[in-house]
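Two proteins follow. First one:
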Amino acid sequence: MFETTGPLDILVNNAGSGVRSWADGALLVPFIETDPADWDPVLRVNLAGVLHVTRAYLPAMIERRWGGSSSSSPTRDAAASAARSSTAPRKRPRWASRAASPPKVGRDGVTVNCISLGSMKHAGLADAIAADPALETKLARNYPVGRLGRVDDPAPLAVLLCSDAAEWITGQVYPVDGGYAPAL
């Protein structure tokens, strides 16, 4: 991967997956209802993907003494227990890797943060809403701003966190979730 692209100044780990069921508006399957066979593809994207990509690009950032890395993780992870959601065990490692990295790379000029996202209207969720428009209203009720996230909502924060203006900001989790986390 690194050999193809060369070094990066900014790395945003934003790919994610989960064990999902769109029936009855149930977006994430409760952990207890998942099958272990469901976990491998989810963990390959959400954990191994983040680790492999970060590991590929971080050494060059350290060598150049500059870089910014940001990972996204659902806001519901902050409050979810493994029994309540298949999300928590699959994405919480992103928080852990974010917490472990700053002391090691901060002295080398590399910042590492996490953007905690609410439900974003894109991909599978956008398709589910197109099939059942009432689903959007149902889900938006959970957000104080009254709507689901748009794919461009986290972009300004990601740009800030990976810029020179944020050289003293590292090791943090920032919610971009329409006010969902404080409303829990």
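Second one, unrelated to the first:
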Amino acid sequence: MPVIPKSARVPLTAKQPEACPHCGSHSLTRRGTRKKKLEIVQLWHCNSCKRAFTPGPAALRNKTYPLRMILLALTDYDIGFTLEQTAARLKKKTNRSVSASTITSWLEQYKAHCSYRRLRSQGLARFPANQTIHRIKLYHRQIYSYAYHRPKLDFLRAGVLDDKRKGDARFAPLADFLERVATDCPHELFSRVGDSKARASQAAATFADTVHAIVNVRENAATHTAALIIPAVGNNKLRHETLQRFMLANDSVTVAVEIPIWLREPDIAALEARWGIELAPKVPGQERGITGHIDILQIRNGAVSILT
């Protein structure tokens, strides 16, 4: 068996679990590690029921291949690469050989998370696999990896992205906006220093009573996908990026990620006059601006959905 590098350790399993999955006890201690074929997982011992376990969802247990390898294969196939090409690309990325038949079994096992597959052949007719996802780095005080799915934007314009609402082309202007971001975005507005309130994520919403906001917990395809992917990645930043990349490539509703949005002084003034609120404090002799980035943008059920 080849030596497994330290980087092969599954980060999630090293974190203190909330409770024993067998009895619910919180009295837990580390109990060594288990060396699998391609990765190392942390074992935990429950002091109450005396059983050992590896934390994480079922998708992480009893698997020969690490989940991160499976996600790479699913993504490459769904954006248009053949099974053989997917296997070759996976070997290049991970230095591990995986047969086409194994990848086929993954495609079947995780098809519930890959709803774009029904549109895959139509997407390939429009763009080759290596041009399906268009990525642009935005230097907005920090680097944002803006990306959009080119076939999905074409489907939006044609009104065929949602098979239950064929002919609905209302979001064609949104597709045009997403393609023009690189040229139309006022990048200098995002790069202003010394004005933290200009960023929507850092400004206090004084016009809204967030204390009494009602939060409804929902279960849908997005939450199920997040539950699958997030445990596979230990680094918080990489979790965010991995989830974005997977949803953009594999589901049928995510059209773009890390989308820059902005409001200039005329926009802010118009909204304040319309709703009788103050979006941002006025500064004498200075035009206001509000900027932000949408983590994940989806079109589903005939509406725009924003995920953060």
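SUMMARY FIELD: Residues 54 and 61 are 8 Å apart (CA to CA). The radius of gyration is 23 Å.
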